[in-house]
Amino acid sequence: MSAEPVFKKLVGTAVPRKEDPEILTGQARYTQDVSLSGMLYAAIYRSPYAHARIRQVSLDRSLELPGVVAGLAGSQLRQIPYLRPMSPFPFQSRDPFLKGNPTIKFFDHYCLATDKVRFVGEPVAAVVAEDRYLAEDAIDRIEAEFEPLPPVVETEAALSSEAQLLYEDWGDNTMLTFRVSGGDVDSVFRQADVIVKEEIRSGRFTGTPIETRAVVASYEPATQALTVWDTTQITHPMSTLIENTIALPGIRVRVLSPRVGGGYGQEW
């Protein structure tokens, strides 16, 4: 009987990726490659303010353009009978030392800001048109009025009792409270020869895949089937989230995730 192991050791061995051939030869299919008959295109009007109340959003001039099919402002979302606030996912952990932790606050989240914007670029309104360029032209015709509010940009300042609140009903700006301890920490510090304190600041960053956020959707009224092509890494939770958000009785959502060019943590 041969002493040679049945399975070749993988350490130090180059293992070809199965997906490489279609990517390198240009045959990979991304969400951008999905083309459906009669497809419409949506463009988003985004907030120019980091923090502001929305006083008025008018899409009248946008809807006058030939080829613009529909327009929607965040204030209109509550008027759609089958749309409800997005159901938040509960924070869960199986680690025993996290029992009772964390304390987390949720908020009703709509796809468009309804009464206030809380970051630059937050979606405020959407326009649907027969082609992408017409939709973008229509966005430029949206008239919006904001009441700017002081932004909350520093962590310590946000924790102050005098800080501007992002969510007034919270009473503070703390979304997550998380406490972890082990052993007699205070005793260790008392016995330490040297205690070093340092404040470390890190620049903001984000994952940036080759293909940016893209979504294509097709709805079949006869079967109440909604098929969604999405640049996501969590297809099953995404289908559940869409079903809970639309809340249309009998709707069935199927989410497909083509190639995304890397995710880097951008699951949603």
How is this fold's topology laid out?
Elements (H helix, E strand, L loop, with lengths): L19 H5 L16 E6 L5 E7 L1 H4 L4 E6 L29 E2 L11 E2 L5 E7 L2 H8 L3 E6 L6 H4 L17 E2 L7 H7 L23 E6 L4 E6 L4 H12 L5 E5 L12
Parallel strand pairs: 10-11
Antiparallel strand pairs: 1-6, 2-5, 2-7, 3-6, 4-8, 9-10
Report on this structure:
With 268 residues, the chain is α+β, with helices and mostly antiparallel strands. The protein has helices at residues 20-24, 60-63, 132-139, 155-158, 185-191, 235-246, and strands at residues 41-46, 52-58, 68-73, 103-104, 116-117, 123-129, 143-148, 176-177, 215-220, 225-230, 252-256. It has a three-stranded antiparallel sheet, covered by helices on one side. A three-stranded antiparallel sheet has the order 5-2-7. Strand 9 (215-220) and strand 10 form a beta hairpin. It is globular and about 75 Å long.
Q: Which whole number gives the mean pLDDT? A: 86
**Overall number of strands:** 11
Estimate what percentage of residues fall within beta strands: 15-25%
Radius of gyration: 25 Å
From the spread of the alpha carbons, the general shape counts as globular
Helix and strand succession?
A: HEEHEEEEHEHEHEEHE
What about the largest sheet? 3 strands, antiparallel
Output the number of helix runs: 6
Helix content: 10-25%
Poorly predicted runs of 5 or more residues: 90-94
Q: How many angstroms separate the termini?
A: 53 Å
Give the strand order, joined by hyphens, for the main sheet: 1-6-3
Report the oligomer.
single chain
What structural class should be given to the helix and strand makeup? alpha+beta
